[in-house]
């Protein structure tokens, strides 16, 4: 199953992990990625620690646990390729429209997929 179909049809919870230039790791809960037409994965971010870390270290990992019993899901190894600040495209991708939205900057951060592994296991046969 391709990632667009997977994330369109699968409920669950995601965690984005990043590290700063010194290698200090951080993790944060994130919504499922938007899969763009060119295959990049896009996440909407505020200017918080995850976004800050990506300014000095473009590598990230997104762990997604499927809803339900057991440990099904994916680990996605990502590299940032670009970002946009407060764009119309970002607005069009926003899944939840919020009233009283702050004027805080938001970023659409795009990643290439380097590697995909199952949530648990050694990933033999699924490496990209």
Description of the structure:
- The structure is a single chain.
- The protein is of the alpha+beta class and 128 residues long.
- It has a single domain (3-11, 19-95, 105-118), classed as Pnp Oxidase, Chain A (Roll), CATH 2.30.110.
- Helices cover 16% and strands 44% of the residues.
- It is built from 3 helices and 7 strands.
- It has helices at residues 3-9, 49-56, 88-93; strands spanning 12-19, 25-30, 34-35, 41-46, 59-66, 73-85, 106-118.
- The protein has a 7-stranded antiparallel beta sheet.
- Strand 5 and strand 6 (73-85) form a beta hairpin.
- The protein is globular.
- It starts with a helix and ends in a 10-residue tail after the last strand.
What distinguishing features does this structure have?
Pnp Oxidase, Chain A; 128 residues; 7 strands; alpha+beta
What topology emerges from the helices and strands here?
Blueprint lengths: L2 H7 L2 E8 L5 E6 L3 E2 L5 E6 L2 H8 L2 E8 L6 E13 L2 H6 L12 E13 L10
Antiparallel strand pairs: 1-2, 1-5, 3-4, 4-7, 5-6, 6-7
Distance between the termini: 14 Å
Number of helices: 3
CATH fold topology? Pnp Oxidase, Chain A
Q: Beta-sheet strand percentage?
A: 35-45%
**Over the alpha carbons, how many angstroms does the gyration radius reach?**
15 Å
CATH superfamily: Electron Transport, Fmn-binding Protein, Chain A
Q: How many individual β-strands?
A: 7
**Silhouette:** globular
Rounded mean pLDDT score: 91
């Amino acid at each position: 199953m391709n990632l667009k179909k997977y994330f369109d049809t699968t409920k669950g919870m995601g965690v984005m992990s990043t590290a700063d230039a010194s290698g200090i790791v951080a993790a944060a809960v994130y919504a499922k990625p938007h899969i763009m037409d060119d295959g990049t994965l896009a996440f909407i971010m505020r200017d918080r620690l995850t976004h800050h870390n990506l300014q000095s270290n473009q590598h990230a990992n997104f762990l997604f646990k499927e809803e339900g019993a057991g440990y099904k899901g994916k680990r996605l190894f990502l590299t940032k390729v670009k970002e946009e600040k407060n764009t119309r495209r970002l607005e069009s991708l926003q899944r939840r429209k919020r009233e009283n939205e702050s004027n805080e900057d938001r970023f659409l951060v795009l990643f290439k997929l380097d590697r995909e592994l199952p949530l648990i296991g050694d990933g033999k046969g699924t490496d990209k």
